[in-house]
Amino acid sequence: MIPAKKVHIISLGCPKNLVDSEVMGGEITKNGMQLVNRRELADIVIVNTCAFIRSAKEEALEEILTLAAEKKEGSRPFHLVVAGCLAQRYGKELFHEIPEVDLFLGVGEVANIARNIKNIIKKKSPRTAVITKPDFLMTAQHTRILPASALSTYLKISDGCSNRCTYCVIPEIRGKARSRRPDDILQEAQTLAERGIKEIIITGQDTTVYGKDLPGRPRLSDILRDIAGIRGIEWIRLLYAHPAHITEDVMQAVADENKICRYIDLPVQHIDDTILMKMNRKVTAAGIRKTIERARVIVPGVALRTSIIAGFPGETPKRFEKLLEFIREIKFDHLGVFTYSREEGTKAALFRSRIAEAEKEYRRDIIMNEQAVISNKINQNLVGSIQEVLLEGKSDRAGYSHVGRSRRQAPEIDGVTYVRGGKAKTGSIVRCKITAAEDYDLFARIID
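RESULT FIELD:
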């Protein structure tokens, strides 16, 4: 056993990274260390980083440098560990630039976090960078440490990506797409249900290529239906469904199973065919439109979320206007925008016709302003409707006792629903009547 040490984990980036942090927490506690919520109490601070785009790298470096400065000042001794995507991508370079970091740990070492920390503590490796092949794939045997109050959590059905979009570094950082076995996924879902989790959110780099690398090519639709059969799980939500890969059987599963939220995250990124081809998205504008049309026919009332990249090389004003018209026409329920981030080592980094940073941000703001109007109108149309709401905590909004989410709202990325009336407790799912709406948030009254 490792000598009793207190460990604090700072998890940055996407839900997939959060799952890795939870697995690291499990490995740490199994090896006799204690997780603490405050970093000033920790003997070891782990920063699990993201490196997907420039802003994520900047956030990670700012956090690391802040901790490095604290360590250098010497007010308290602690070991500093940098894990995750930034470490995988730049760990060997940063090893020489930030000497305050004791350990850089790549994404392939998630399950070996305790062993690597043990080596640092015992001075076997005074400072080191352990950057191995990014082939780690969690299983149900890996314990995850979730917040005691967790009602929703992510279930990562795969890792890595083989799509090779020209702007994306994930295949280099995370490796090729790897799917978990169906029985292993269901075992974890059962464990989560037994821990009191009510909402499972299906995640992966591209959930809709699930199973293509496994014998028998198991289907995502079957996984969704099987999870819906688990007692205790109330909601299931699907994220990261690629418009080139989502199939009608997946949509039909969403339509058929009451536990599966009528919500599909469908990142389209763009609608101009030239841009889509340069992005290597393997789908055309016509294909995207057909997928959206099929989703709305097969799953009536489906809430669609998408993500857009603004300012990709070659996005002329005319092509941007085409994108804007598409957003106005389709009226996504939820939409997020990234400004294009030029990442070294990607094909797109070599493309000409680059867009100035100020122009990218201007285009992002235009899209988000349009989306605010669209979202407000969609939300206003929900006033008077009856919605199920998962109560997640006490509200800080005057006149409303609880805050939660409807089936139409994913955690962190969408709006919330403020609830009043009734005697329901946090953790319950209640039927509510929507009484008012803002651009992104809803207001409701419990009716049962």
